Amino acid sequence: MTKISDIFGKELTVVNVGLTSMAESVADQDVKTVHLDWVPPKEGIRRLRVTKSGVNIDEANQQVVDRIKKALPVLVGMGIARDVIPGMHDRMILHAGPPIEWERMCGPTRGAVMGALIYEGLAKDSAEAEKLAASGGIEYAPCHHHHTVGPMAGIVSPSMPVFIFENKTFGNYAYCTQNEGLGKVLRYGGMGDEVYARLKWMETDLYPTLDRALQSLPDGIDIKSLIAQAMHMGDESHNRNRAGTSLFLRAIAPAMARTCDDRERLAKVIEFIDKNDHFFLNLSMPAGKAALEPAEGIEGSSIVTVMARNGTDFGIRLSGMPDRWFTAPAGEVEGLYFPGFTVKDANPDIGDSTVTETAGYGGFAMAAAPAITQFVGGSPQMAIDSTLEMYEITFDEHPGFTIPVLNFRGTPLGIDVRLVMETGILPKINTGIAHKEPGVGMVGAGILRAPEKCFRDAYDAIAELC
Amino acid sequence: MTKISDIFGKELTVVNVGLTSMAESVADQDVKTVHLDWVPPKEGIRRLRVTKSGVNIDEANQQVVDRIKKALPVLVGMGIARDVIPGMHDRMILHAGPPIEWERMCGPTRGAVMGALIYEGLAKDSAEAEKLAASGGIEYAPCHHHHTVGPMAGIVSPSMPVFIFENKTFGNYAYCTQNEGLGKVLRYGGMGDEVYARLKWMETDLYPTLDRALQSLPDGIDIKSLIAQAMHMGDESHNRNRAGTSLFLRAIAPAMARTCDDRERLAKVIEFIDKNDHFFLNLSMPAGKAALEPAEGIEGSSIVTVMARNGTDFGIRLSGMPDRWFTAPAGEVEGLYFPGFTVKDANPDIGDSTVTETAGYGGFAMAAAPAITQFVGGSPQMAIDSTLEMYEITFDEHPGFTIPVLNFRGTPLGIDVRLVMETGILPKINTGIAHKEPGVGMVGAGILRAPEKCFRDAYDAIAELC
Residue A37, SS3? Predict the structure, then answer.
């Protein structure tokens, strides 16, 4: 057989681009080869670089991720939704995901809306609640339109206490309710007296105890730092929040001890937090929202700054087009189910908790949280591979959030719709699973990809500008 | 060149044992090869199987590890050392590691002894303390001879409060003081008014608050479970105890809230624990001691059930010879030093904390704790490799302690001196580093191997029985 080096009459070094099999056949002939990992953009996907108005998209994106990296989201206080969330009023209910009217709402969102109306005292039972919910007398709006995020159904009603976050770098605020725990809870569409009683206790006991403690901490609690620390303790701060919950308790417990004059109430508050490893989710989410909002509205940017689901639709918004939702039907979740439930019981993907992936942690940092696979399925290797894959579709890495097992590499940050379309790799999300019928609650947890259509439509919208 | 397959006239599959270069030269000839990772025992090391009295060593070892695996160490209460530690008296001081007299004690142990005498009110300053310490009026004994373990110098004096552990499976007890934190602290040989004041506060405030809380918990606190959970949260429970400390606080805080009537004291106790990520070390250590003692005394066993250092000598004891110490000079620690300190300031390896490696966690579980490398040096890959290497010298794996990143494999359990000598692999330990002079305290943290001589002597002792 003629060798390549014979043809050229000298030693060669070959740079191979694309298919590895090409490099291998050259290397077999003792030719030094360097392999470049590259695949051509998918058919019909051209690289978008500069808009017609002259904006360099990479530069715009750099601005976006720089703003996210500079963010300093701090828990500064608490308040009642109607008093503190801008635009909130007595007949408004906020929900997760893109805009949706009662008629199109999925089961768990309906259940949570009805449950919230009963909790608010606006309806005495589910029949009355359903009637009111469908009457046109309630204004529905996405949490995201009110600087708020809500896990799963994401229902925020006027009387609910919320955490108040300030992004100290940019001065903007974000809001989120307190986490109820797992199982039959409102955010999973759970209804029933125990759900309303828990919500009431969270309003009358949990909230004032946390609130008073926070009032005694003039600097608030730096949640960005807690997320970063928790990432060295096996959390990814979306579906694993064990370390974050622990660190939050450590941060606030001395202040609670000083400001709570009822020993039994203090004990119950600590027990409530201790028994709910997801307590920190409702802190990691608004931290992400507070970090992302100042990065919205950078002209020409192809970075996703909102990614959220209402259980019917999955929606994204780009920094460069901050008021436009690109939506697609919400996907099915592959997951681990609680005993007695199967995939047939599952509602499609739901919740604003994808704010964590959008902000550079959550599912994107799954490599930091190998033990999460006991909750959402998969293997520790899958968790590592997921993070590595997400670097392919993100514009940057977050130096504030590092993953020990990847040699302290920063997390994948800034989903770029161009990279999503060029690579064909869709964002990977881990999530809880709600029962599809109103009233039941949580049935499992799992993993899925975001639907392609949102990203294709967003890409096309950017392409039109170029 | 003649090919191997030509010689034999047919396709071959070759099993290669030992050197990989042999397999490679065969594989180069397109012969299918299977490589067996195997090295011959080191020179002069024969495989020990059965003692002259007819004990099968493997069977004895299996009994040992079965007992360790079945252990259920629970924190059941607290008490003052003189009241609760068997054999303790008013003029006794316990220390880490194998037996040692004042004359041979290293600097940090001397410092800690003198500090303890001042704390006890038996001496008014260091000159008086030194005189008393050397007078013969104090009885020194290893913690290990009194069901106790102590980190670093490991000094336990009569007035010190200790945690009381019960191994619920076997009914034995173990003891350990409360952890003081890092820096200038007694266990690192630190001396000075702030050291004694802290110890006094730990006796008058911390201890009663924890003790009263524990008294209200009839089942105590299951520390084995906390170690297992912490291992899914980036701890290895020797030099990384951030998750363990957090989980312990979560477990005891509600009880403290209910039983402490002084809000400011409660706040200070929580703050003290929160500010010391090593607080849990003094719980993970006695948990190991409680687990290991029932595994002592199994005839013919070559498993290490005690491994401890006093800063002068490193010592081990075998299950099969529970009263005999095999010692060697304590080693030098390669580490990361605090600003202003270097390897020249370092005392040799010291402390009973190697009880954690002996019991199947600590340095042996370093793969679970990649972030520990920021404290002890090395890389996350080194942490994983360390654990993988320790499987080579351990008899079993601990099903109760699993490492997520190794696909939830159980930790290496039961150091077998036969395997240590056959492979030449010495146990790898991570540790804090004390200043070699009395009075200074902690100067860094690092990693080292146990000295070969102890293992060789222990092997020889077993060999004599065979």
Answer: coil
Q: Among B229, B261, B274, whose Cβ lies nearest the Cβ of A250?
A: B274
Side chain identity at A232, as an amino acid letter?
H
* Residue tagged 């704790």 (tokens): B369
Nearest beta carbon to residue B243 from set A233, A267, A271: A233
Prediction ipTM score:
0.90
| Amino acid, res. A50 | V
Interface of B with A (CB under 8 A): 229, 232-235, 242-243, 246-247, 249-251, 253-255, 257-258, 260-261, 263-264, 266-268, 270-271, 273-274, 370-371, 373, 379-381, 404-408
Taking only the tens of pLDDT, chain B with its 466 residues reads: 455 556 556 666 666 666 666 666 666 666 666 666 656 667 778 999 999 999 999 999 999 999 999 999 999 999 999 999 999 999 999 999 999 999 999 999 999 999 999 999 999 999 999 999 999 999 999 999 999 999 999 999 999 999 999 999 999 999 999 999 988 999 999 999 999 999 999 999 999 999 999 999 999 999 999 999 999 999 999 999 999 999 999 999 999 999 999 999 999 999 999 999 999 999 999 999 999 999 999 999 999 999 999 999 999 999 999 999 999 999 999 889 999 999 999 999 999 999 999 999 999 999 999 999 988 889 999 999 999 999 999 999 999 999 999 999 999 999 999 999 999 999 999 999 999 999 999 999 999 999 999 999 999 999 999 9
Q: Do A246 and B251 touch (CB under 8 A)?
A: no
Residues of chain A with Cβ-Cβ distance to B221 below 8 Å are: none
Contact B36, B16 (CB under 8 A): yes
Measured between beta carbons, the chain B residues lying within 8 angstroms of A407 are: 379-381
A-B contacts (CB, under 8 Å) = 107
A253 vs B251: CB contact, 8 Å cut-off?
Answer: no
- Superfamily name and number for B57-66+294-465: v583 domain like (3.90.1700.10)
Q: Where are the domains of chain A?
A: 4-36, 57-66+297-465, 71-287
Tell me how far apart the alpha carbons of residues B153 and B114 are, in angstroms, rounded to a whole number. 12
Q: CA–CA separation, A384 vs B304, rounded Å? A: 36
What is the C-alpha to C-alpha distance for residues A59 and A48, in angstroms, rounded to an integer? 12
A57-66+297-465 CATH: 3.90.1700.10
- Rounded-to-integer distance, Cα A367 and Cα A185, Å: 29
Give the pair of three-digit tokens for residue B186: 């007694």
Residue range B73-287 in CATH 3.90.1710.10: yes
CB contact under 8 A, A243 and B246: yes
Helix axes B263-274, B242-259, angle to 10 degrees: 170
Architecture of domain A71-287: Alpha-Beta Complex (3.90)
Give this prediction's pTM: 0.91
